[in-house]
Amino acid sequence: MTKVSTHCVDVANCSCFQHNTIADCSRKQLSFVPNFQPNVTKIDLSFNIISTLLPGKYVSVKSDSSVKPRKSNGPFTSLSHLKFLDLSNNKLQYKPEVFPVGVFEGLVNLETLYIQHNNNYNEDQANLIYPQSLSKLTKLKRLRIDGLDATLNISRILPTMLALEELNISGASGMCYIKKFEAQFFKNVPNLDIKGKTFERLTNLEIIDLSSNRIAELGSMILKNQANMTTLNLSSNLLRKFDVKIGHMEKLQYLDLSDNQLPYLDPSSMSEINNLLARTNLSIDLSNNPIQCSCEKLEFLRWMVTNKRVFSKFEKYQCSFSNGTTVSFHNHDSPLVELEVRCASYVPLIVCVVTAIVLSLSVAIGGLVYRYRWKLRYLFYIARNNFTLSNNVRKDRRDRLLYKYDAFISHADEDSEFVVGDLLQNMEETRQFTICVHQRDFIAGRDIAGNITNAIHNSRKTVLILSPDFLRSNWCMFEFNMARMEGIYSRENTSNIFIVFYKHVRPEDLPLTVMEFINSETYLEYPGDLQGNAVFWDKMAQALAV
Asked: Which of 148, 256, 143 is nearest to 189 (CA)?
């Protein structure tokens, strides 16, 4: 068990772990940031009532504390080893008087910062601004913040976060008030949100400008909730494909994909754009992209020429062939006409070559089969005869290799005397069958259900000793159903259950599944007399040997 101490912080009700390097001060009703030891690497201050990080608010509450008082310029100045800081769900509004400029100055190794859910919708939003002190966190990898309508402010902060990997402003646990994103907002976040969490709560967003951000990939669902979008600017990035779902944006007027690395648009994107064109006056800019002139992209080029009125600056588009030559769309149809000629010249040739190869192979294979037809027929009959003659031998060998037991005996505890006494004596000692019974063969310490399924799986047959007590036992019925499943799913519907009526059971007492099984399979009745018993054990031996 991990030992909990309080030697890493000057507040008694906080907890410390892992040699005082982890401090948990969450949900402690703290109104200030306490003092922490310099070697602390992880601090959780979430769900408190902290309202400011100004100097002078962190005086130690224990006069005999082993934690040295902090300097007056901020709560984290001496915490150079800190990597994780959670300040979420407090009262730290994004205001200069709450987050002073140097508040994060000492956190030179901080990688994770959570400050979301600190700005309440019901409070005054007029003076909210993203903390400028965030720009000092050059090693930050994960940042969770509330969404404010102050994106120009944060766009000046993010360029310093060269290590940033995750930016969450979705509002999943905080406030979302963003209506517009400025250019270069995500300059150092090249791969954006596959599952669409970033903008999930920003349903009122109408304009997004993510131009000049070096974005190499956009998740297809990133804008799944932006039905009110009118302008989407993704120009001057590094996109090699565009598969963002936009079919639901019935108000979209302008889509700027210029100055990227897009060779074409995939069929799903073309289909979505076609649906939008039927309802909106959409304009698309694909200029300065390396559009490919190839037979594989012929359908895209046909689509683009057909809808040329939709593409702004269409006359400036260029199409590149595999040999490096380019053709301008200045004459609109000229690239398509030239490509149609090139592709048409290759299609018949490809068809002829493929047809010739198939015919040649067919003739060659047919000739070989005809030449060696008698030898092939001879090998077929020899193989079939060998299979038929040795089938029973191989089955016996396979059974010995696959199964540990010849039979698992499923019975009620009230019938144990018959099983342990008569059955084992007649089947194991006299007739040399390997029998599994739970009193002797179940593994100690393993759960009962595990022992049962293991016994059934390792036995060639499951024998049900049917009696009124068997039907009343939950474990017996469990064994019956597990044996049924074994036969259906592991043994390709082969019969692996054998029923013995040990005591009289009224038909109306039989469960439907048991009754159906009895009606479709053979079973034995235990006679209980000396002469009948001898015949009974012989018949049971025959059933287990099949």
From this structure: 143
Residue owning tokens 């993203």: 130
CA gap 197, 140 in Å, rounded? 20
| Predicted structure pTM score | 0.41
Are both 1-178 and 401-545 of the same fold?
no
Best CA proximity match to 130, nearest among 172, 177, 80, 199: 177
Element (H, E) at 355: helix 334-371
Tokens of 32: 């200030």
Give the model confidence (pLDDT) of 213-249 as tens digits: 677 787 788 888 888 888 898 888 888 989 889 999 9
As assigned by CATH, the class of the 179-289 domain is: alpha beta
- CA-to-CA distance for 446 and 451, rounded, in angstroms? 6
Is the pLDDT assigned to residue 342 strictly greater than 80?
no
8 A C-beta contact, residue 151 and residue 97: no
| Cα gap 60→41, rounded to integer Å | 20
- Sorting pLDDT into bands at 50, 70 and 90, what band is 66? very low
From residue 265, give the alpha-carbon distance in Å to each of 270, 274, 317, 405, 462: 7, 12, 14, 63, 61
What residue ranges do the domains of the chain occupy? 1-178, 179-289, 401-545
Tokens of 302: 């046909």
CB-CB contact of 24 with 44 (8 Å): yes
- pLDDT value at position 193? 52
Q: What share of the chain is helix, strand, coil (3-state, %, to 5)?
A: 35, 15, 50
CATH of domain 401-545: 3.40.50.10140
Q: Do 424 and 410 contact (CB within 8 A), yes or no?
A: no
User: What is the tens place of the pLDDT at every residue in 318-328?
Assistant: 888 888 888 88
**Minimum mean pLDDT range among 100-104, 282-286, 373-377:** 373-377
Rounded to 10°, the helix 448-457/474-485 angle is 40
Tell me how far apart the alpha carbons of residues 198 and 116 are, in angstroms, rounded to a whole number: 13
Alpha carbon distance 79, 56 (integer Å)? 17
Residue 282 CA to residue 256 CA, distance in Å, equals: 11
Buried b (16+ CB within 10 A) or exposed e, 160-198: ebeebeebbbbbeebbbbbeebbbbbbbbbeebbeebbb
What strand order describes the sheet that includes 459-466?
A: 435-436, 405-410, 459-466, 497-501, 523-525
Extract the tokens encoding 175.
Answer: 């406030």
Share above pLDDT 90 across residues of the chain, in percent, rounded to a whole number: 29
The string of pLDDT tens digits covering residues 284-314 is 999 999 998 888 888 888 898 888 899 998 8
The per-residue pLDDT for 381 is 46
> Looking at this protein, which amino acid is placed at residue 85?
L
Number of other CB atoms surrounding residue 215 within 10 Å: 20
Handedness of CA 261, 267, 270, 272 (dihedral sign): negative
Name the residue among 67, 65, 25, 70 with its Cα closest to residue 49: 25
CATH 3.80.10.10 fits 1-178, yes or no: yes
